[in-house]
Amino acid sequence: MTYSTSARAVAALATTSIAALMVSSALAQTPPPAASKPAAPARPAAPAKPPAAAPVPAVPAQAQPVPPADQGAAAGQQPMPQLIYSQWVKFCVGPDGQPADQKDPAIKTKQVCLTGIDARLESGQPIVAVVAIEPPGADAKRILRVTLPIGMQLLHGTRIVIDQTQPLQAPYVTCFANGCLSDYELSAETLARIKKAKSADVQGINVSGSALSVPVPLNEFAKAFEGAPTDPKVLEERQKKIEEDLKKKGEELQKKANEARQKLEQSGGAAKP
Fold first, then answer.
1. Which of 52, 71, 80, 115 lies 20 to 30 A from 197 at CA?
2. What DSSP string runs through 193-251?
3. Which fold has domain 7-271?
4. What's the pLDDT tens digit per position in 180-216?
5. Helix axes 17-27, 232-271, angle to 10 degrees
6. What angle do CA 252, 116, 103 make, to 5 degrees?
């Protein structure tokens, strides 16, 4: 069963921006996982009818800077700056793209649920997003969708290393204005591994040939995945908070940049005879 989010549904969800972005990016185009059918590497050109929104946004209630995983950087690996992670959050929608009414006893046979997290730089730039997509129906295949920034070499696809075990690999599916995504089949075995894991590394190769490896915490995944969907109103409040935090950090970074420029200008002026 294929779900698509109409422009009207997205507009209706716009008041809850987190939900709108999650739904439109994850459901507007849900191709078969790479494991079930070989796929050609994604091309940077946008599809004929691209989704209207970006990948999963930050949804932290208590966002905290999380340092990179404590591991030696591989040769040629791009250094990872400090990142701000969202919380794992779950959101479910019905066939109309609206938040699903969990009081409806039949809704579980119709709804699509998404459980996601993302990481951003202090400037607000998204670096990685991971979302588990559960389509309706007992036979429907679950998908784990990862998104990395624009500027990656599409030929190599992405990898996911769960607790430093054998990596999973998948090609890119398509690209948005601010990221390229790839899909993994979320089999029962893979889902069980993720639920028990502490962290995963989402990896790709950028255009300069450097490896990008972004750690993603998994401690709270099982709780969010198995729990009830988050109230859309709560999501909206969290979105407002992260926007305020990002604005504040942006102002702080701009202030530091201005101070550094002034010091540079002053030192240059003093050096002149």
1. 80
2. HHHH-SEEEEEEEBTTS-EEEEEEE-TTHHHHHHSPPPPHHHHHHHHHHHHHHHHHHHH
3. Immunoglobulin-like (2.60.40)
4. 999 999 999 999 999 999 999 999 999 999 999 999 9
5. 100
6. 120
